[in-house]
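Dig into this one:

. . .
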Amino acid sequence: MTKRAYKKFERNDRDFYATPPEATTPLLWHLNQKTVYIEPCCGEYDLILSLQDAGHICISATDIKKQPDKDATYFRYDVSKVDCFITNPPWGRKTLHAIIENLSNQAPTWLLFDADWMHTKQAAPFMPRLKKIVSVGRVSWFGDTVGFDNCAWYLFDKPSSGLPVFVGRTPFEPTIVS
């Protein structure tokens, strides 16, 4: 039985789903203080606000709906003053894979998406780029509902040898710097 069998949800246009703050918390352990980043799929700025509350600095926020010429699947960003990209991208595989390749060719890239991806054949070509996986667990993308997908933060970078580091769930909360 599928985990979505009992309730149907319509897919949002452009795969837009606001990032709940609790999905951001596991990432905080893995960012340096005052990380400077670009958010290339910013939607309504939910992820930016969570990261800002933790002391991190977004110097550029774009979204294909607001700026179609800055499509994260191919746009070249000015990364000269950033540590990384951080975003909750669309999960459609064609778009997601193009984003992984484009962004990680430019700077280290943290992406939040379904944890099942890492277990699929389609993930294999991206494994040389994958440096770290941080487990998030179930995330509710539909307000006060039960989450259906286990999620993870994935850190991608330019291709290299070596295996990614996997970080499982932790009961501890990171220190939030306001």
Q: What stands out?
A: Residues 23-167 form a domain with the Rossmann fold fold (CATH 3.40.50.150).
